[in-house]
Amino acid sequence: MKLTILGCYSATPRDNAHPTSQFLEVKGRHFLIDCGEGTQMQLRKYKLKFTKINHVFISHLHGDHFYGLIGFLSTLGILGRQKDLHVYGPKGLKEIITLQLRLTKSYNEYDIVFHELTSKKSELIFEDNKVAVYTIPLKHRVYTNGYLFKEKIGERKLEISKTAAYKEIEVCDYQNLKNGKDFILEDGTVIANELLTSDPSKPKSYAFCSDTKYKEDITEIIKNVDMLYHESTFLEDNADLAKKTMHSTALEAAKIAKMAEVKMLILGHYSSRYKNLKLFKQEAETVFENSVLGEEGVCYEI
Amino acid sequence: MKLTILGCYSATPRDNAHPTSQFLEVKGRHFLIDCGEGTQMQLRKYKLKFTKINHVFISHLHGDHFYGLIGFLSTLGILGRQKDLHVYGPKGLKEIITLQLRLTKSYNEYDIVFHELTSKKSELIFEDNKVAVYTIPLKHRVYTNGYLFKEKIGERKLEISKTAAYKEIEVCDYQNLKNGKDFILEDGTVIANELLTSDPSKPKSYAFCSDTKYKEDITEIIKNVDMLYHESTFLEDNADLAKKTMHSTALEAAKIAKMAEVKMLILGHYSSRYKNLKLFKQEAETVFENSVLGEEGVCYEI
To answer: I need a labelling partner for B277 at 20 to 30 A (CA). Which of A139, A158, B270, B301 fits?
Structure first.
């Protein structure tokens, strides 16, 4: 799992402070999470293959999270995309995008499949044989979801040194072994799968939570994730403002991380009023040690 | 008159190739012309006081000319703007912007006054005591206008060395002299205005033409302008493509400049297929000598 931050500032974008967008690679799938203005330029800047993206997840309809979507979709059309693109986000997104495509007389050869979300409960919204994606209902000034990306348990790992001991096991048997089947020798002896394979890698998980007020009940959904991005628009010095605008402080993000027992916390969605971002990390570390600053262009690997 | 180019590339934006947008200062008025994605970041990057902008002119509803408008308008709201902002552009623009403001639950303290254009003839769309703005009907794949910005003739210039010769002329008489009135001495002698003042500076003019196929009849509207920006998406090596997509080549832009007897031609809206922009200048110069390359961040003064 590889996460590249394309932008991690709140509200008004600047040349060196891009609004929210993230590019997530999970077992060969490429996901775009939020798409603030300028996201397509950021994807190019960091040389991310954005034609590989098949699924876009928009958290909520505030401009700093989706104003770059129409440009991204148009560029895919200009580049001649033919594959369907799936867009998940709040109700209203489809109307905004389709109106603009219609009035700009855009002709795209590919279909945009909208999945408009309205539920206030966590739900499975995408699944294939490698990954499942769930919503994380958040609490903000407008209807908002975070997203939880969970790898599925992979195949068992073949232990070649062990299979080699049995001449009867051939290459064509490998897939059955990876799938967990025992091997039966010609004389009827059963070789237990565990003797020939080892456990698959532990599936990884990533939770994206932006924007939200402090909301403890999300910890049930994001319990034990390997990596949590949780917005921290403010420091505790502006706790009142955080409450008023339904955002979180770095301390609150860290409390969520601790309570959910996640392995690592990435902070972001910084208010432009703060010049020294180290203070966010310092504040979070008082509660949760493995806190890092989200930084544009940085790739976080699990 | 000062023109700053914020972006001068066509179609798909890149980090170093921003879509069309220009910031024009005319006698203390600040105009934004087109507003491709990322325009607000470019305004900040080049330290242009974008809160001073009261009028935005959008040429046509292709994304590379207006996808940055909603972000720009939202940022003005966040910054607490109270003054009206006037937006000129094709019919449909109002629907696109208001839908997004409604669905994002944006509350702006300022009013956006939309002036939707539908005429196919040149018309005066804005005028005050210093500047007049006219449309330049262009021919593109969608309804498109260029814009002509004309300074009005200013006040006559007071020649202090000459007025000093008459003790009866006091400071309170200056404005009448600047307005062109003769001065009458107590004995009834008329001092002709031309003896006390000189002609005002010649009013400057700027014409913005993007996007359009080669269209000779615009030369009547832009005749003798001091500065012409004319799109040159292609070179003559792609003249067929220019025709098909209703764009112009650098040579065609230069022909228009020559025919309209303008003083200076700025090229732009380059297709990203060209790596060597000098070729645009070279091609234009074969027809019109004072051709320059539009470059991001460069300020052109008249």
So the answer is: B301
CB contact under 8 A, B71 and A67: yes
Residues of chain A contacting residue B100, judged by C-beta atoms under 8 Å apart? 63, 96
Question: Cβ(B71)–Cβ(B106) under 8 Å?
Answer: no
| DSSP type of residue A46 | T
Q: In what side-by-side order are the strands of the sheet with B291-293?
A: B124-127, B131-138, B144-151, B205-209, B227-231, B265-268, B291-293
Q: Does A99 touch chain B (CB under 8 A)?
A: yes
CA distances from A246 to A20, A140, B28, B85, B140 (A): 17, 5, 40, 29, 46
**Angle, in degrees to the nearest 10, between helices A69-78 and A93-103:** 50
How far is residue A36's CA from residue A227's CA, in Å, rounded to a whole number?
A: 22
- B283 neighbors B254 (Cβ within 8 angstroms): yes
The catalytic site residues of B sit at: 64
Complex ipTM value: 0.91
Active-site residue, selected from the candidate residues A15, A34, A64, A84: A64
Tell me if residue A240 is catalytic: no
- Say if B79 is an interface residue toward chain A (CB within 8 Å): yes
CA pair distance A221, A244, nearest whole angstrom: 25
- Whether residues B100 and A70 touch (CB distance < 8 A) is answered with no
B6, B12, B108, B271, best to mutate vs chain A, most A CBs in 10 Å: B12
Is A47 in CB contact (< 8 Å) with chain B? no
Chain B residues in contact with A75 (beta carbon < 8 A):
11-13
Question: How far does the CA of residue B127 sit from the closest CA of chain A (Å)?
Answer: 29
Give pLDDT tens digits for A289-302.
999 999 999 999 98
Residue B128: strand, helix, or coil:
coil
pTM to 2 decimals?
0.92
Fold of A2-154+201-301: Metallo-beta-lactamase; Chain A (3.60.15)
CA distances from A86 to A26, A54, A94, A191, B260 (A): 16, 6, 11, 45, 49
Q: Any idea which residue has 């049930």 for tokens?
A: A220
How confident is the model over B229-281, as pLDDT tens digits? 999 999 999 999 999 999 999 999 999 999 999 999 999 999 999 999 999 99
Best CA proximity match to A133, nearest among A244, A42, A14, A221? A221
Report whether B274 contacts B241 (CB < 8 A): no
Residue B293's DSSP bridge partners are: B267
Show the tokens assigned to B269: 């809206």
Average pLDDT value for residue range A157-184: 94
Could you give the residue range(s) of every CATH 3.60.15.10 domain in chain A?
A: 2-154+201-301
